[in-house]
Design goal:
alpha/beta, eight-stranded parallel barrel, binds D-xylitol-5-phosphate, binds zinc ion
Length: 208
């Protein structure tokens, strides 16, 4: 299992990013919120672009924004492995996927807990990652929703039916306990559990 560590709940981002850089976390999960798609707002890009000063890890960027275009253009400049936007947008998703592809970055689509999984089927052939939300997007430290394992199972079946090559990542409420229910995923995103542990590396080891 790959691990992507979110720093959304961090109270000292530079310090935590530096410690995480010494672990074997596969990615740093960057939650981006615009105060519109979700209520909360994260720091502007002019601050986030300094992230390279604290970590050399590849970034897994989760755009919780209503209009992803300008964020895609900005975040493509960083050490970004995955750029993921939400399915629940009024924007033209195909056009945004084309834009991500021009940078040679892997693209993902995230799906909220209440969205019908079938809505993602038309995109499976052209994306690299589905980010399954195990909590309502918007804030850290929430409880893992019980029907997530079922959703992962169904999504896996859909991916097979479509003969697509898509990784499944699961985001929200991941701990060493809930990790047991998401064995079908390829990547787990965890924030609060890792950052509130005394030893980040040991917490990451327990998620693998
Ligand atoms: C929630 C974010 C998650 C979250 C993960 O909207 O997308 O990435 O911060 O953190 P925990 O592990 O606290 O749920
Ligand atoms: Zn996230």
């Amino acid at each position: 299992m790959q691990v992507s560590t979110s720093f959304l709940s961090s109270r000292n981002i530079p310090r935590d990013l530096k410690i995480l850089n010494e672990t074997d976390t596969d990615f740093i999960h960057v939650d981006v919120m615009d105060g519109k798609f979700v209520k909360n707002k994260t720091m502007p890009f002019k601050e986030m672009k300094n992230i390279y000063k604290f970590t050399s890890k590849r970034l897994d960027v989760h755009l919780m924004v209503r209009k992803p275009k300008k964020y895609i253009i900005d975040y493509a400049l960083l050490n970004t492995a995955y750029l993921t936007m939400h399915l629940e947008l009024e924007e033209d998703i195909d056009e945004l996927l084309d834009l991500i592809a021009t940078y040679g970055i892997k693209c993902g689509i995230s799906i909220k807990p209440s969205t019908d999984l079938e809505e993602i089927r038309p995109y499976l052939k052209r994306i690299d990652l589905v980010l399954v939300m195990a909590v309502e997007p918007g804030k850290p430290g929430q409880e893992f929703l019980e029907d997530t394992p079922d959703r992962i199972k169904k999504l896996k079946e859909m991916i097979q039916e479509e003969q697509a090559q898509v990784k499944i990542s699961v985001d929200g409420g991941i701990t060493d306990e809930t990790r047991k229910y998401v064995t079908g995923a390829d990547i787990v995103v965890s924030g609060t559990y890792v950052l509130s542990s005394e030893d980040f590396q040991e917490a990451i080891d327990r998620l693998r």
